[in-house]
Amino acid sequence: RRVALGVWVLTLAHCTALTPPLRSPASRLRALEVAGEAVELYWFVKTESFCKPFPAVKPHLEAHRAWVAAQRSAGYPVTSGYRVDEEGRPGGGGLMLFRAVSHEAALEFVSHDPLVANGCVDYQVNQWIAEVG
C-alpha cells in the first residue's frame, strides 16, 4: 500500500517505525525511517462542516469511512468521527486526527478524503501540539 506524505510516496512495506514499534493501527507512530533516514511525524487536526445537503453528502460519507478504514488498515495513524450538538444529535460536522511530516503533507493527505475531494465539506487543517498527556 502507498501513503502520500507531501512530495514523497512511501511504500509502507519499506518503512520502519522507530519509536514506538507499530503494534496496531492505533499505535502512536512518532517517526518513520525512509531510505535510512528518520522522518518526524506531527499531529494534525482536520475540522469540517458539511457545505452540501445531507442527501448529496451521504454517498461520499460512506466512501470517507471506507477511506479512513483503509488508511488505518495500512498502518497509517488516523482516526475520524463526527461531532454532535448539546443533545447528542449529529450534524455538527466532523473531526479527524492524523500524523504527517508537514502541513503541506497534511493538506495532501486530506485532499484524498472523499468528503474533501467531492466538495462536501468546508474544512480547516491545523497542526496539533500536545501540551499535557
UniProtKB/TrEMBL annotation:
Keywords: Signal. The keyword Signal applies. Gene3D superfamilies: Dimeric alpha+beta barrel. Residues 57-128 form the YCII-related domain. The keyword Iron does not apply. Pfam families: YCII. Residues 1-18 form the signal peptide. InterPro entries: Dimeric_a/b-barrel, YCII. It comes from the Eukaryota. This is YCII-related domain-containing protein. It comes from Favella ehrenbergii. The lineage of its organism: Eukaryota, Sar, Alveolata, Ciliophora, Intramacronucleata.
